Amino acid sequence: MRPVSPAAEEAIRAAHEAGVVLALLSNTQPGQDRRRALKAAGLDALFGDRVFLSHELNLAKPNPAVYEHVLTDLQARPAQVLMCGNNLEHDILPAAAQGIRAVLVGRAPGRLPPGATDILSIAELPTLLTGAHIHG
């Protein structure tokens, strides 16, 4: 699986430093494990046991059940969670349909559901979450 990009690594660290509880939900095939990429980037401890891989859950995005599983595991209400993803159909629309706030990394003019927003780069996420700029 692809490594964590430098921009994503910086955004993840900034979000964590701002007090955001991090979780990862990824569609994967057997043998694919995003934990290796997190570990290689030195980010694995920031996620702890909050890494959800579709092949382990036998559930994948956009199935609403995968979002319900994550919410239950995190003991969180939809309004307490923000889904950030780069796929409108698999990440943003199904999360928003469950009342989860959603941020699309990319642009989808006129296609975002109510309450969702978009950003051009993952580097914008910490500013969106906290209003504080990260150095980069």
Structure report:
With 136 residues, the chain is an alpha/beta fold. It has one domain: Rossmann fold (3-Layer(aba) Sandwich). Helices cover 40% and strands 13% of the residues. It has 7 helices and 5 strands; from the N terminus they run αβααβααβαββα. It has helices at residues 6-17, 34-40, 44-47, 54-57, 64-74, 88-97, 125-130; strands at 24-26, 51-53, 82-85, 101-105, 117-119. It has a 3-stranded parallel beta sheet, with helices on one face. Strand 3, helix 6 and strand 4 form a beta-alpha-beta unit. The model has no long low-confidence stretch (mean pLDDT 94).
User: Structural class, please?
Assistant: alpha/beta
The fraction of residues in strands falls at 5-15%
What is the CATH architecture term?
Answer: 3-Layer(aba) Sandwich
What would you call the shape? globular
| Helix proportion range | 25-40%
The overall strand count is: 5
CATH topology: Rossmann fold
SSE series: HEHHEHHEHEEH
CATH superfamily: HAD superfamily/HAD-like
End-to-end gap: 25 Å
Strand order of the largest sheet: 3-4-5
Count of helical stretches: 7
The main sheet comes to: 3 strands, parallel
Overall pLDDT: 94
Low-confidence runs: none
Radius of gyration: 14 Å
Tell me the domain tally. 1
CATH class: Alpha Beta
